[in-house]
Amino acid sequence: MREVDGPKEPVETGPPPFSEHSADSPLSIHAMTVAYDRRPVLWDVDLDIPPGSLVGIVGPNGAGKSTLVKAAIDLVPTLSGRVRIFGKPFQSRRRMVGYVPQRESVDWEFPVTVLDVACMGLYDRIGWCRRVNRAAKERGMEALERVGLADFADRQIARLSGGQQQRTFLARALVQDAHLYLMDEPFAAVDAATEESIVELLRELRSTGRTAVVVHHDLQTVRRYFDHVLLLNTRVVAFGPTEEVFTPEHLQATYSGKLTLLEEASEALSKHGSSP
Amino acid sequence: MIETTWNPFFDGWIVAVAAACALACAIPGCLLVLRRQSMMGDALSHAVLPGIAIGFLVTGSRANWIMFTGAILAALLTVFLTQWLGRRARVDPGAAMGVVFTTLFALGIVLIVRGANSVELEPHCVLYGALELAPLDLVRILGVAVPRAFVVLAVVLIANLVVVGLFFKEFRLAIFDPALASALGLRPGLMHYLLMSLTAVTTVAAFEAVGSIIVVAMLVVPAAAAKLLARSLAGMLAWACGLALVTAVLGHWSAVQIPHWFGLGSVPTSGAMATVAGGLLLGILVLAPREGVVAHQGRRWSFFVRSNCEDLLALAWRLEERGAAGSAGELLQRLRSARGTNRLVLHFCLARLVRRDLLRREGALLGLTDHGREEAGRVVRSHRLWETWLARTAGLASDHVHETAMRLEHVTDEVMRRRLASESGGPEVDPHGRPIPGDEAE
To answer: What is this model's ipTM?
Structure first.
């Protein structure tokens, strides 16, 4: 269990009380530290994503952007801290979260069709050992229509362009009909048309009260796409409404501030094999 | 002279056992190939040996359920040790696997030779199997004498079908995208261990039939070939099963028949099966409709011909632009010196353009038809737009852009031309000052 149980911790070292967390925040992270092989890559993240926002996560390579998203849904273990999705741990909020992994994270030569992939978002609802039924396929088709891939439903995913592959992933997230979407670099290496259609889709989601947290790499488009921005470099440099937070000073701090001491400490921790 | 007489009983059962074995292996094999863990089949088929040996030593029985239990435990230990070693020793998974399974296999061999010391578990049989002896070891099922190996393999085959059928979509997601499977609560780790257990049971059942070396071929080869042909997981499983059947039948037939043609005695069926499977894979690699070598070369050839046709048209267009017309020989000579294309290919292209009514022979000269002029104008437009874009937008030196544009003009469609034009600011002349032909359709 990664959740830290407040009362059992000694008073001096335990995290502060969690009262500040709002139950209606789609994603609320408190004092979260994440490590790979005991080497911390994200330090002490505190975050309350406001409902109905489009949040861009930006930061240099190795800043922990993907790790933050993965840790939020238990794909990587956290060392400390806690994550709440609409006030509850992720395990009891799975259905409210849609996850779009990085496109390169899967084998696109895999023998599945576009419709097969779109329907994957429904596997938990279909239930163990049950077949993908007609209702699920209809929902898959609806989602493919929304991303403009209905004509490609029977095509093997290997025969799609990069942009089409990314839209297949989006369709898969759409069928989940989630309230919080976590997307890892959906704009990476897509064509201009796909980029526009993703942005449109994000705005559509927001207009229906959904929240999307998007790992993003293009600083040029941050102002246009996102109403909130999280500047990340192994710790939260700044988080807030884009027009307030997306400033040259903050960007400077995000992209140039090498925290050499923190890195050395991480190195030492991984060598000693102990948890902080 | 050695006689080959087909014995319906013996040869029939040998083929049946071989088919059950190949089919049983093909199913987990597909999942292993997709998980890029084909060699895990190899590792497991060796590493289960100490499990079997210990089971035998402890109980003194060679009952199937003891062998399978020992094999599953040894397999799970192998998977666990491989992951643990990879993490702790920071070596790549292949190396970790190699260390674990060879160690366990060696332990198994030692146990069998020293401990079991009986004819019942013979190292030789473990390695090569004894498919031909299968019809000698019969059990009675519903009053019918059936080879024991067939019963075991058929049960394993049915078990594989049932498990993969039941967890079909779970396997599909866990292998394709374990991160999403985990986010949806579908336990990809559990599915992994389930697959490893299936593989372990299957390899043990296949031991007696084909031995622990050939079993890898049965796991991997039909599956790898099926992957080239299928576009869905169900399709891949079906193809793999079909190929497994062909392998079994053709394998036994060629083991008996082919040496006979040369006046030799038959060779082991298991070896012939693996050879046939390899041959099938090679054939599919060459002939597969999309990914095959032939299809690939065909696509290259048709692009090559199209490029040359377009170059010929564009050349005729450029001559016309200067108020000249070239003879066929002149056109070909110029293209040959520009692109170094084979003369035969160019004649072929020329004939095709004339046949398609894009070029017209006017005495000794070649002229564009109206249709051909339109087509050629598009190619030249693509070429000059690319030159302009490369010089203006990409900032290349204008005397360097011609070669690149020569290549790019053949993959440029209407949409791309429009974007090129707008990104270079709607140019009217290229960097060499020549006008860019307009296109009414655009």
So the answer is: 0.87
